[in-house]
Structure to design on (126 residues):
């Protein structure tokens, strides 16, 4: 019984959301980032919404190994090219690998192909 009580306390104090999980705020996620949108750096207007939030964490876009094995590191040009810091996204092989409201998207960026779970409304031009 003590073990169960400890587990309940721990889960209520620490964000346990893995990359791609739903979230409302940063503290809901292990990576401490709850992405709800991608905004244009200059206009601050949303160019892509992430329904029900998307847990992620920072990574170095130049090196995929800065994300977990089942993730891919991507950055958004609209948010600026000030650094190589990006975010990890859940990788996938098919739509069924993604949660409801998300699809497995194939894209190309910089010098690599990638597949990741993105909102159904995502397109190459976002």
């Amino acid at each position: 019984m003590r073990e169960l009580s400890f587990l309940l306390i721990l889960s209520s104090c620490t964000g346990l959301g893995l990359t791609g999980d739903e979230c409302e705020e940063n503290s809901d996620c292990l990576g401490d980032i709850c992405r709800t949108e991608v905004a244009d750096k200059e206009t601050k207007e949303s160019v892509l919404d992430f329904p029900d939030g998307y847990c992620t964490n920072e990574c170095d876009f130049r090196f995929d190994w800065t994300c977990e094995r089942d993730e891919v590191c991507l950055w958004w040009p609209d948010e600026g090219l000030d650094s190589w810091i990006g975010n990890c996204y859940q990788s996938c092989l098919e739509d069924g690998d993604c949660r409801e409201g998300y699809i497995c998207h194939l894209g190309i960026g910089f010098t690599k192909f990638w597949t990741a779970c993105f909102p159904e409304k995502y397109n190459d031009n976002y």
